[in-house]
């Protein structure tokens, strides 16, 4: 894929993620896709899940079901950039939401999407885990 095609695919995937519809999300991932987030990140801890999701079905379940258990309302993503080089796309964003307990959430993310045969094969997620823990658990 060209860089522009890769960037367009990841933008389409984000629109699908926002629907929380598994039938729209699943076609964007390889069957053996991986999503790697920082160990002990607040979302994984709060939901009792793993920071390393393996397999399309696991990732799709998180995006279509589990995500909404934690971020229950007012979810918005402000994108600062989509940068592509061949089959690698880097996304900079800020996510705002209301947490299940009613508190506001706002954190910055950088995600690196690795594509394979026109599908998302691996996502590496980077975020401020200390901030997320304070927002979710009130920890310092």
UniProtKB/TrEMBL annotation:
Q: Gene3D superfamilies under this entry?
A: 3.10.450.50
Any single Pfam family the record assigns to this protein: SnoaL_2
- Per UniProt, residues of the SnoaL-like domain are 10-122
In terms of PANTHER family, this protein maps to: BLR2505 PROTEIN (PTHR41252:SF1)
Q: Which SUPFAM superfamilies match?
A: NTF2-like
The highest taxon in the source lineage is Bacteria
Question: Can you name this protein?
Answer: Nuclear transport factor 2 family protein
